[in-house]
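Kindly go through the entry underneath: sequence plus fold tokens. Please state briefly how this chain folds according to its tokens.
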Amino acid sequence: MRSIHFISGLPRSGSTLLAALLRQNPRFHAGMSSPLAGMANVMLGEMSDRNEFSLFITDEQRRRVLRGLFENYYGEEFNADVIFDTSRTWCAKLPMLCGLLPSLKVIACVRHVSWIIDSLERVIRDNALRPSSIFNFQPGGTVYSRAEGLANGEGMVGYAYNALKEAFYGEHAQHLMVLQYETLVRDPPKAMAAVYDFIGQPPFQHDFDNVHFDAEAFDARAGTPGLHAVGRKVAAQERTTVLPPDIFRRFENDAFWLNGLANFRGVKVV
């Protein structure tokens, strides 16, 4: 079986940019979020005791079925030696993944949470005539209710944040690397060198001035054109937040990965 690794972490934190860069390497396949994590969850549910026939399903059979899901989803049409699958769910699935793919690595993309909320709010405002799937296509609400919805435990940001903390502090943290958005856009050679070192692959010369990723059809269907847009040149863009000051301050101290004293698992933070 070829190598399978995972891109996870927080939304609006560079996972699409990372995938766009990785796919420049002809040996690699990487894309935006795939349905694989959801499919694995459905299969786990169907093989659980809620199924009256679960008496006939052993844990080894469960492992074989799930391994088969990974192997067959990325079939022969994916001509790559190394696969990167993307989902914010993977940080919450490390115990399962380590039982299936012992050599896996998870690259968790992170960013200061205030700027994540700001980035999502910008997408909503830029598409004011098109309600977004992020909020179940509901046209109401304010920046306050949107921020609250994103940040709660089941929200787009809150769920991913809690999953990341679970992986960061959990017993499988040696499989995790945290890649900061700020590093990726300000020093992309350093960021990519760290990724290659972490996954044990030979370096590759990336073109940081000519990056391409196309998800326009997906974004349009979700009511969020531009959600996965990637600039052609990797560069940091300084800007002023669109958030009210109280919302921005609410999240500005949430970057737990910067607290070296709390990193007792020794997770690599780049």
In short: The longest helix spans residues 59-73.
